[in-house]
Amino acid sequence: MNSNLATPAPPKVLAPAREAPAPLFVDLDETLIRVDLLVESASQLLSRKPWLGFPLVFQVLSGNRSRLKDWLAERTIIDPTLLPYRPEVLNLIAERRAAGGRVILATASHRRLAGPIAAHLGCFDEVLASDEARNLKGKAKLGAIRENLTRTGEGGFDYVGDCAADLPIFREAHQSFLFAHSHAWLKRCRSLIPGTHVLGNDPRDWRAYVRQLRPHQWAKNALLLVPLFLAHKWLDPGLLGNVLLGIVCFCLAASGVYLLNDFVDVEKDRKHSSKRHRPLASGAIPLWQAPILSSALLVAGIGGGFWLLQPAFGLIVMAYVIANVAYSGGLKRKPVIDVVLLTLMYVIRILAGGVAAGLPVTDWLLSFGLFLFLSLAFGKRYQELAEAKLEEDGPGRKIRGYRVGDLSLVETAGVSSGLVAVLVLALFVRSSDVTVLYTSPRLLWLLCPLMLYWIGRFWLITIRGGMHDDPVVFALKDRISYGIGLVMVAVILAAHSLTIRH
Q1: 3-state DSSP of 17-82
Q2: Which residues of 46-63 are buried (b: 16+ CB within 10 A; e: fewer)?
Q3: 418 by DSSP, 3-state: which?
Q4: Domain residue spans in the chain?
Q5: Residue-wise DSSP of 323-352
Q6: How far are the Cα atoms of 224, 239, 310, 359, 434 from residue 227, in angstroms, in the given order?
């Protein structure tokens, strides 16, 4: 026996070939992403080119959806990197690709919008989408899926969708994967299509709407109470009721402006590390609802001022809304103008409180408020510039029209404005006007060191980088500010009611 002969290797046993799973067709709008691209493109067009609103309405009224989508797709660009994707759908796609199955994006959105999204994700073998000739929704989408299967020679398919238009496709699919938007829709789908796999149930959460109104910002409207308090009329139920009604009107109008701003800035917010979680930017609230809700809130706020209080109050609310829209629309990027406008929006609230209560707002109060809120507005800008300097040091870097090199100027202007506010307070205490309302006006001198301490502490915190909120919101959250405020209220009450003999 020749030992040099190698022992023959045993024959290889081939494992049976694993059959690839059925192709998976995935819907896009409100399934793969939390938003609707038709609404996204329309809102982008209106926010960037509002003069095209009338042609857009004409396209909508024509009733030709495919032509409308084509018209919008020619005039808008959706950045696929900013869209809110659903992780549940992405995970299902990854599992299907890992098993060797084909994955096809099948959407009623236009090809110009769907194509870049598919390219960005890199997980689709093909894209079926609408064009000028065909709106790929419902039965039309089912027909396109059948054509795709005939071309590839595959016998069946699975489908991921979300809406009633997908029911014909769900009925024909081997496996149906549903992303429901309400408990009622989920229940109906399960009864019509037994065996439906539920990827998620995402009903509209009322808490998202509350967050969108930004109720924490309503605290600023407490400034309407200042004229009533300083006139010592806070125990008058009629006047207090009018002021509280005025506060409600300001809250409604302010929330309407916030909603409008977030609608216009939705793309910018999605680029921001924290703002991308806002309800509109994240898709928690449908984008199409924003202009409707905003209009309703603004009409309620301004209209309530006109009819429930008096025309003068309604005009003040309207002036506040105009100033706020102008600020958000571009003036917030104009140096110095921005802080002056912020200051005026605070002073407007004080004027509104006087009008609601039918009480005069003195020049002393207006002067004090003007310089105090100017100091706070400069503090807000200082904090933003200081944060920009930490991120990218350099005097040439611009933030809202300011340069990082302007920090010292902003600091000087802010501190000086705060000190001038204290000077106005001191001059008021020294004036003859103080004797009209106060029996012991000398006690009011105690307010000056309290204000000096608060302003000094505010700027010390700001310069050290600890001011991350709106300054007024900071004051309403800060325990020391509350303590100082309570002491100042006690001083004012004592000066009004106590008689101190000299």
Answers
A1: CCCCCCCEEECHHHHHECCCHHHHHHHHHHHHCHHHHHHHHHHHHHCCHHHHHHHHHHHCCCCHHH
A2: beeeeebeeebeebeeee
A3: helix
A4: 24-203, 208-361, 402-502
A5: HHHHHHHTGGGSTTHHHHHHHHHHHHHHHH
A6: 7, 11, 17, 7, 15
pTM of the model: 0.76
Q: What is the token pair recorded at 164?
A: 């009633």
Residue 102 corresponds to which tokens in the numbers above? 């084909």
Note whether 255 and 220 are within 8 A (CB).
no
HSE of 340 in the Cβ direction (CA atoms, 13 Å)?
Answer: 5
Closest CA to 291 of 35, 118, 36, 39: 39
Q: Which of 282, 259, 258 is nearest to 269 (CA)?
A: 282
Judged by DSSP in three states, 127 sits in: strand
Q: Positive or negative CA dihedral for 483, 484, 488, 491?
A: positive
Q: Which CATH architecture has domain 208-361?
A: Orthogonal Bundle (1.10)
CA torsion angle 135 141 146 150 (round to 10): 50
> Can you tell me the distance from the alpha carbon of 194 to that of 177, in angstroms, rounded to the nearest whole number?
11
DSSP 307: I
The structure tokens listed for 314 are 């309604």
Residue 471, token pair as written in the block: 């300054």
CA-CA-CA-CA dihedral for 318, 320, 324, 325, to nearest 10 = 10
Confirm if 358 and 313 have CB atoms less than 8 A apart: no
pLDDT by 10-residue block (mean), the chain, 502 residues: 46 53 89 87 82 83 84 87 88 89 90 91 90 87 89 86 84 84 74 77 75 84 88 83 91 91 81 78 81 91 88 91 85 85 91 89 90 91 76 56 79 92 91 80 89 92 79 79 89 75 49
The domain 24-203 is placed in CATH, from the list 3.40.50.1000, 3.40.720.10, 3.30.450.20, 3.30.70.100, at 3.40.50.1000
For CA atoms 69, 71, 73, 75, the dihedral sign is negative
- What is the SS3 assignment for 158? strand
Q: Are the C-beta atoms of 105 and 28 separated by less than 8 Å?
A: yes
| Number of DSSP helices (H) and strands (E) in the chain, helices first | 21, 8
Place of tokens 């007024």: 472
Rounded Cα–Cα distance for residues 104 and 128 (Å): 7
Query: Which amino acid is residue 421, in one-letter code?
Result: A
